[in-house]
User: Fold this.
Amino acid sequence: MGGSASLIPRDLLSEYQELTFLSKQEILLAYKRFSELLPKEERENACSARVPKSQILTLPELRANPFQHQICHVFSTSESGDDSMSFEDFLDMLSVFSDSATSDIKSHYAFRIFDFDNDGILDRKDLEQLVNCLTGQGEESQLSSAEMEQLIQNVRPAGQGMGTAPGTGLSAHLPPQILEESDIDKDGTINLSEFQHVVSRSPDFASSFKIVL
Amino acid sequence: LSETGSALASPLAALRGPGARPRQQPRLSLAGLSVLAEEPHGAAPVHFLQELPSCQSARRRRGGTQERRPALLGTARSRGDAARAETGELADRPAREHPKSMAEKRRIRDFQQADTEHLSRWKKWRRTSSKSLKKALSEVKGLSSYLVLWRHDIHSIEGKFGTGIQSYFSFLRFLVLLNFIIFILMFSFVTLPTIISQYGIFNSTIAYISPKNIDDICTIYKPSGNKGLVYFYTYLKDLLSGTGFLEVTSLFYGYYSIDAVWISVMSYNLPLAYLLATFAYLTLSSLWIIKRSVEGFKQNLVHDADPFQSYCNKVFAGWDFCITDPSAARLKHRSLQYELQTDLQEEKLKQKIAERKMGEKLRIYTLRIFINIIVIAILSGCFYSIYRVTVFSQENSSVNLLVQYLPSMVITLANFIGPLIFAFLIRFEDYTPAFEIKLTLLRCVFVRLANIGVLLFSLWSQIAGCGSDKCKPCGYNYKLYPCWESDVGQEMYKLMIFDFIVILAVALFADFPRKLLVTHCSWKLVQWFGHKEFEISDNVLEIIYGQTICWIGTFFSPLLPAIATIKYFIIFYVKKIVLIHTRKPAARPIRASSSNFFFLVVLLIGLLLAFIPLGFSIARIPSSKACGPFRNYNTSWEVIPDTILQFPTGLQQILFGIASEAFAVPFFVILCIIMFYVIALARAHKRVVEQLREQLVLVRSERESCVSCPLHHLAQPPLLFPSLPSQTHTWLPTLPSRPLFLLHLFWSCS
Assistant:
């Protein structure tokens, strides 16, 4: 670690400390791990190099993660859209996932990670994909379509209008599920503020949404 | 301000440029909310609602501006306005709290720095000093993170098994710390002064207690300290049971037969210190536990209050991002799937329960009553056998080690068999799965903790209860128990040692052979045994049971916390090895949030249970006259009034006044009134939350019905046509921004 420490200039290091939620030790460790991903000849100037996505995904912290592609996609600033990561992108990612990041910023990025089609709202398709990611991609491990329907969909039948007030008709008997729980304005999708609201009240979110190197 | 606002708007607009991902802003949903702004009956309730404390606190928490949310909600307003709101934000928030990429954050930071140029010198100085202070703090924090015990172990466990199991190990770490601090407390206030004076360090002398007004008969106490040649076996036996040479060491109460310690001219009142240290460790433990559990309690309260959230919590916070192991990830997938499916099934089950017929209900209720009677019968059986065994072992205590350890063995057996029977019986009671788990746990907790209570009760029945006037002169059975506190201390010591031995033995002789069998033997029968799951609740109960023993025992054996610290320290490693090598995580994992709360609640129950026997033996049972710091007092508690009597009269009167009914009753009444006020406030908040929720839905449906009406466009021009800047500027400030405010309130209340 001592060797790699000298490769980040002091002022850059303190700048990173200011701009991220990471401590000095964490940044140095991140640097070490990042430069290990690069081929030998590029290690000298790891600060400016970009690591391709396939290489990033070999990190054990991401390897097991079902959202790995989304994470790369969200944090990459690559102009060509190949989701490669620079060291600063990498630090951004670790900063968001660190223990000391605010819940506001965590939920903001969680929303973008769960927003698979990048349209700024979580709709049914996003939620379905999210649940599939959680239960695993295999055929046998996925929930049946009826279960998925029950889990995601509002309890009102599809044909009916959106105006059914809660507590009347069917919804009095059937349980509230994801959309019912989080879709405050009842438009069938979850937007960022609704998501942040729901997540801020979720007791497990802060403890589960973190990656420590 | 508006000038600077527009000036700032341009770099900010640039910030949104190429780097940011193309992200469509939430569109219609917002428009829907904004309809509220036009509602005619707006003003009055808003003012009323703004007076609510929850709203005020929300305003405080959210940085004092109501304008923040709009920036977050995006471009429904005109660009310039959003930007202006954002500049306010820019000044407030450090650059790292912006959800932007590094380059953009750098620009924000530079921008902020440029902003400080035209500040006064004083403000500049304040800003830089606060910045450097923060930096220094983060340095210290970074360094102190090296000092945290087991940081790496817990991190690797988290990576392999998820947060649920990690919370168990964090809990274990908490107990190690707690016991260590209790040990420091007892050692420095009780043991250290005694040792110092015994060896005459710092010119200290001891004032030994001269028994006054006590029958000589009571003061005969000759602990059978082994002298001369000792067999190794006796030595081992003494070590395990706390008798013999151990009885007269500083480990037990009997050693501290000192009235005061004189260090040059200062006198140290040891009896008072002993009692106060006892109160101090109990208070410290309870405060610490309560502080830790308050957070979880709040969450649980909110959770109970509305059944929303459960699915969102599972889906949005379901994945542990800290999992690094592919096989752990597979397990996590499976457990998540299982959990979601069982929860969905549970919903169906609940529906079925709701549709139950009368006859069926009757059958189930009679069955439940019957099973509860069985449970009570089992419990009383356990209690009775513990009582018999304790009496027996006390009467024949000198026979051999086996008899001495008999109560500990029976308690451990009851702890082992009880839960098995309960887990079997609960199946017939037809509860929902979640409730089944809770009820079984509750019963197990009851068995474990009540067993200790029964043991103590039977000990006391031996100590204090004597039929004839055997114990009249001293108030307790002085022949059998000349120094009864030491005897209770020994019993607690034995329980703790035995508990430790059992934990080690289970790991060594049950878990590892089983693992070997399963991996190296492919017989069906053996495979059926299979891998055992690492059940958090059982393990937690185990260590909480040990902690309760420690709390009770510390008064009778002041160095017990040291043993507990070492014990938990070793258990941590044992459990870690067992977990990694022999167990697989449970199929239905306990979530970190609920488990943390559960651990602490059970721990609190254990602590409260420890209060009862301790309070009883301090205040009611006559302290032994042959040994200990309280020889001259009738009970241990009498030290306190005695000390108070030495105070100046004014202070005396105040203290006695506080203790009198004249003070206590009004105090209690006032407490009750405050409590009712808080409850009423909470209820009001809840109602407001419900109303707001309904209003939001109403607004939504209004919008729905408005889509078809032709006036719709006229009704909300700034929202559907965000590019109408002139209108927006004049229009916005006058509005109370009701939809946002509603959301605000909704956030803060819930």
Q: What stands out?
A: Residues 1-5, 154-176 of chain A have pLDDT under 50 and may be disordered. Chain A is about 50% helix and 0% strand.
